[in-house]
Amino acid sequence: MRLDRFLSETTPLTRSLAKRALKNGEVELNGEPIKQAATQMDPESDTVRWQGEPLALVGLRYVMLNKPLEVECSARRGFYPRVVDLIDLPKAERLKPVGRLDVDTTGLLLLTDDGQWAHRITSPKHRSAKVYRATLASPLEGVAAQSAVEQVAEGLLLDGEEEPTKPATLTLLSPTQAELTITEGRYHQVKRMFGALGNRVESLHRASIGELVLDANLPPGEWRELTADEIALF
So which residues are the signal peptide here (predicted)? Predict the structure, then answer.
């Protein structure tokens, strides 16, 4: 691997800044100052230091975040903070959300730089069930509640769609608190499903994906890396 590439992979430096750091004598390879960006090195056996600090390649990361309100899953900087800005890891910007949550939706969000792992979760073939808890604008009770449960189980035709939603499970925790389990990830699906039922979602929280449940000890805005057993769930 080229030394400038290694630096850009292991530090906040861009490729051009890595070349500048080399020219400025800030980098040592196996104890010797190196200024040539094209110098080849072996990440497994060579020792590289930048400004005296040893460097190592970042492996694949798997992160659970309790996403708070008014934080967005976009890679671009906009009006709201980005979820990656909450993650204090090297090269956090390389972490990609595994399925998005709206800016006004809270709860379990997974981030990773392992594209194959992310695909296994989001692929329609695997149908990882996602559980959402919604606060509704209008109460669902009696006959209306039973009808809503049955319609969700059969599949709802959403506005602008030609195919109904896959069978899902609606559990009413109270007249205005509902738990919805879906296996798809259509645009604003949960909100649109309740809209198709003549209701409106006032707040939405994702509780789990597949067998992975949001850590109850993780406050909003906090994160932790997944355990090996959690990673193996997908």
Answer: none
